[in-house]
Amino acid sequence: MCLANIRRTIGERDEALVLAEDTVRRYPKVYGSEHPYNHGCIGNLAILHRVTGDPQSARKHNESALAGLEAKLGRDHHYALTVAANLASDLAALGDIEAACGLGQGTLRRLRAVLGEGHPMALVCAANLTADLLAGGREEEAATLFEETKQAYVRTLGLEHPDAKVFLAGGHLDADFDPPPI
Hey, is 156 helix, strand or coil? Predict the structure, then answer.
């Protein structure tokens, strides 16, 4: 799964999709269908569906992964929050900006409470929410969150970090699940 994530980030999206689909088929055989890693990998597959032009499949996979993670770990676990942030991006890609903003706001609040305001995952969520607020015509909220997020990037990763550059350009970031070894 880590290799699929790397392939996606270097532009080998089709190869990454094939590898992720194969890995998602294999994970339940090793860890069981309800293991959090299985759901996290389904979330990675969802990212690949969105970035290869199928946001509806991405939404379906992320909804499934989120339900599985919430049942196993609870809504405030960072695995579930990562998938929720990606689901908000799916909703935005499908044109449901209002739902994307609602999910993004709740997820950002939870991420900040669990991981802290400057954690990279909280920054990803804030960056994406900024773009969604702007797309939804909520310019004042977007401007405020933009400044907060920019300052958080300055304090933590710096504005030259690849994620910060995507944020500054108004793009959406994808949050990978990289399973740690067990």
Answer: coil
**In a 3-state reduction of DSSP, which class is residue 182?**
coil
Model-wide pTM > 0.90: yes
User: Helix or strand or coil: residue 73?
Assistant: helix
Query: 166's torsion region: left (phi>0), alpha (psi -120 to 50) or beta?
Result: alpha
CA distances from 180 to 36, 40, 79, 130 (A): 11, 11, 12, 30
**Residue 167: count of CB within 10 angstroms of its CB:** 26
Burial class (CB in 10 A: 0-12, 13-18, 19+), 53: exposed
Mean pLDDT of 81-91: 98
